[in-house]
Amino acid sequence: MNSFFQRILKFPKMLLVSILLISIAFFIVMKKNTRMETDLDEYMPQKHPAFVYSNQAEEWFNIQDGVIIAIEYSAGIYNSGTLQKMKELTKALQNMDEIEKADVTSLYTADNIVGTELGLDVKPFFKNVPKSEEKLTNLRQSVRENEMIYERLVNKDETVTVIIAEIKDDVFSQEFYHRLLDLAKDYEGPEKLYVAGRPIVEGTMAYLGPADMKRMVPIVIAVIIIVLLLVQRSIKAGLFTILVVLFSVVWAFGLMAALCIPIYAVSTMIPVMLIAIGVADGIHLYSHLHIYLRKNPRADKKTAVLDMLKKMWKPVVMTSVTTAVGFISLLTSEVYPIKYFGVFTAFGVMMAMFFSLLLIPAGILVFGLPRWKDRNKSGKQHENRFLNSIASLVIRHKYTTLFATIIIVAVSVWGATKVWINSSFLDKFEKDSDIVQTDTFINENFGGTSTLNVILDSEKEDAFKQPEILEAIDRLQNDVDGSMQVVGNSFALTDYLKRMNKVMHADSAAYNVIPESKELVAQYLLLYEMSGDPENLWKVVDYNYQKANLTFQLKSDNSIALNSTIAQIEEHTPALKELGVNINYAGSGYKGLVFTDLILEGQIKSLVMSLIIVVILLSLMFKKFSAGLIGAVPITITAIISFGVMGLLDIPLSTTTALLSSIAIGIGIDYAVHFIERYKIYAEETNEQGLTGRKTMQHSGRAIAFNALVVIAGFLVLLASVFPPNRALGALVSMNMFTSFVGTVTIMYLLLVRLNIYFKKNK
Amino acid sequence: MKFHQITGVILITLCMFSFSAIAQEQLSGLEIIQNVYNRPAPQDQEGTLTMTLINSRGDERIRKIKQYIKDYGSEEKKIMFFLSPADVRDTSFMNWSYDEADRDDDQWIYLPALKRVKRISSDSKSDYFMGSDFTYDDLGDRHPSEDTHKLLREETFDGENCYVVESVPKEEDYMYSRTVTWIIKDKWIGMKKEFYDEDSEHLKTLSVEKFEEMKDYWIITNSKMHNVQKDHTTDMLLENLTLDAGMSDNSFTERMMKRGIR
Fold first, then answer.
1. Among A543, A544, A546, A547, the residue to mutate for chain B (most B Cβ within 10 A)
2. What are the pLDDT digits (tens) for B187-213?
3. CATH value of B28-259 in 3.40.50.920, 3.10.180.10, 3.40.190.10, 2.50.20.10
4. In angstroms, what separates the C-alpha of B204 from chain A's closest C-alpha?
5. DSSP state of A759
6. Quick check: pTM over 0.90?
7. Which of A118, A520, A543 sits opposite B118 (nearest CB)?
8. What CA–CA distance (Å, rounded) separates B185 from A524?
9. CA dist., res. A747 & res. A630, Å (int)
């Protein structure tokens, strides 16, 4: 290996130039080919049965998420001015290219099913905006009497009316959102207008998260550079350490672009990971060099570099390989963006290793040794004392250390049990942001901004004309609607039939029930088709009456709301099953729920798998199973504390926070490997525990402390982010770095000492 | 005298021929549409209508209806009895439509499960007929004076020599902004008709699949309406036709609706 380095480093300039050229090439490819993927559907595992079914159902019933525009007028909406605005806005929405004319619902477009003296009538509430007091009163009356409209399109105290425009998944863009906002603004005053709905939340999130990252990452890097320079006390060392990270990021993204793989939201985590992990190699290499030069002040640069490589290539390779393996284990995930994330982060980690072992030595050979400002032994004294005192304190208070660790871990495990998964998009925004406030406003006044589609299907044709089945659905609706706070209302074929049954019986409330025979159901439906717009019917039932779509409106899109609603619905499955009806779920909210579960399942699977792999790899590297186990301690502790803190602080697991366990592993391994490797070397050198401990602390311990300090400082910058998930990310990465560091220099060190590894038995 | 008379007749006939030849060349869009409107039609008609609705996924729904239609000149009465599907059998529907432009149709429906006749109101002729792609207006005869017609060109379509006429409604806010019709010369049958919506976008295409000569009338027995925007199709097939059987006026009453077909 040494001759290999010698041979390569014969031409350090060429090496530097070629790495630089390839990096520039990758950078150009990256600039040219990089495409941001904002369509959340692209993230979903489309072959997963739940997704296949949901996508099918969305097509059967034309299920789409709706943009909601609410018009509020505190004096009441029943005046010709407000109604005129509502009508004009409805038409303006219908004329937008992104929106199908038939997909806009408002009081202006809604069908009013009414009973007349003569029979049944399905007609619009109005065509020309009513002007006279009498006509306005009539309109108010007819809305109040229509359960299908009242409290759905007009709120209970009649101060707000909504327009719902359903749009396809892929049409939402920030530009479209701003056009909607501008449109709404045109109609402001005295009315207030609100724009909300899942497409907006989803679209803004898909845009805001990465945009915020893009803004924050340069600041993070800048802070890391500054802190690196401060701790390394050498511009050259700091510069090359950060170049290693930057090049590995450019190569990872360049390769991604070259392979035409778009950037997903999770991909924005790749630089985060590479920064946190990548600086370690440089810090450890320079730290070794520093110590070597202090002992051999007269060594020339070539000898120093070769000594650095000889002593350090092994831990650098070991840490990088184990970290990369940890990320590769994400391939087990069913979610493609996560797979890509794993593979490209692993690639980046390997590149960081490659650059550390080539770029840094070549840099030293070309530009000379870093000139440390503390060569006169003044500054290091402080560092020594701090780390040495940790070492001796840990040994002296071994039981305290052990118990403290056990207690912290126990509390964390208890905290981890309280971790909950949140697939909510809305919860990712600030509580006082416009998006959240608009959403709250609409949830307070209407059924809810989130929907859950329950798809019922039967083997038999015309199943959903059977009164028993329809009554079972009606019971389900009443139960779920009535017993659950979070459920605003529900809508299904049953609502049409009850309404028609009622109006056909002179508006008698006693007939607001499912018609008593299949024939009557069929005849009402025929009647509806004759008088109304049958298109509306195909949103709740299919052509053969074999499939039906029951929609619940929820006041929250978080996982607790969805799961508890589903649990309540599931209580009705046995009864429906007996009638030959199966229940499935569909819609974007449900898909989000399944998606989050999948990510977490994959994350936990990969966590466990990589832990096992790490133990095996470490055992092989250190040729001792016990060393493998000890090496896994900081990782495990970091992961447990990470989950524990999330549980205790009520930070839900989401797609971003779940990925943090990967950081825990990546960093934990680095610390453990460097520390154990050094410990092993010094143990062999000195064969004396106390001295080995102190020396290791001075060497690896110091490098680990620097590494932790640098990354923590960098990631604390994210606390200033405007996007809450990115803030959580910054805090948790910092914390993981800290616990990894502490875990390594305390409990892992203690275990190394107590288990007496690497010392001859006779001692 | 005789000779003169004969020559006179010949001359007049010749003149008429040449005139009609010229006239035929110069037929205006309005005249063509008037010819279609005035094409002889039976006084009354009885038959089975099979309506097949096909949605964009290819799902089909078939409805069989026995229908009786009688033309009273300024009004047309129609009664329909559902034969299938079974759950709507004996449901009947009666429609009286009037020539007066602003007079709405009168419509009744009898639901056997409710054992009651109900009025249903159709505010607009732009309502779709029984969930099909035909509006009531598409099914009835639109008076030529309601549109401005323009002969666009003559061309051969489906082996027939056709006039292609564009009709633009005089009424603003009509459901179509214009229609284009391919009309077979001499037979005065619209073979194909394209409908454009308010935004001038192609909405539907009506195509006549089959027409037959019965009792000196040209009767369209199979036509298809395809809504290109929704990709929804309605196929209307008329069978077992009896024409001019002298239908009684009593056939078009609520009592008949309840009694059903025996």
1. A543
2. 889 999 999 988 788 999 999 999 998
3. 2.50.20.10
4. 16
5. S
6. no
7. A118
8. 44
9. 9
